[in-house]
């Protein structure tokens, strides 16, 4: 699994002209899933996301996790293009990205685990939908984490 985490002032996802979800300050998390991902990846990555100290403390130092930011939110959006390979040619290959039969159950378990770790509802896009994501990146702070690179 691969995520791109952005610390945001606000973020929203719109589908077919209708806003599906939005958050104020918090994290926008873009999630890519591949076939070799497992519940172990979900558990590790969700714990890592909510414990990342990327919010400023009173001294202006990134030292606070999202769970300690009052009224914070997490917006999770599935994004198969995160699994793109660009090693050959100029057209990205998405062969590593899981097909819906494998990815959807993992995505749903990811949502459940992230909510459990966060302690409140996680807002989401819709798996496989054509979505427009709007955000105001705060910092900017953008972190990329790949669960296969944790060892």
Write up this protein.
With 151 residues, the chain is of the alpha/beta class. It has 2 helices and 8 strands, in the order βββαβββαββ. α1 (39-51) runs parallel beside α2 (100-118). The model has no long low-confidence stretch (mean pLDDT 96).
Summarize the structure.
This protein has 151 residues and is an alpha/beta fold.
Describe the secondary structure blueprint for this structure.
Blueprint: E1 2-15, E2 18-23, E3 26-32, H1 39-51, E4 53-56, E5 62-65, E6 73-78, H2 100-118, E7 123-124, E8 131-146
Parallel strand pairs: 3-6, 6-7
Antiparallel strand pairs: 1-2, 1-3, 1-8, 4-5
Helix pairs in contact: 1-2
Q: What would you say the CATH architecture is?
A: 3-Layer(bba) Sandwich
Straight-line distance between termini:
14 Å
Helix content: 10-25%
Give the domain tally. 1
CATH superfamily: D-tyrosyl-tRNA(Tyr) deacylase
Count of separate DSSP helical elements:
2
Overall 3D shape:
globular
Structural class category: alpha/beta
Radius of gyration: 15 Å
Using the coordinates above, name the CATH class: Alpha Beta
How much beta, percentage-wise? 35-45%
The largest sheet, given as strand count, sense and whether it forms a barrel, is: 6 strands, mixed
Return the CATH topology.
Answer: D-tyrosyl-trna(Tyr) Deacylase, Chain: A
- What order do the SSEs take from the amino end to the carboxyl end, as H and E? EEEHEEEHEE
Average pLDDT reading: 96
Which runs of at least 5 residues are low in confidence (pLDDT < 50)? Answer: none
Question: How many DSSP-defined strands?
Answer: 8
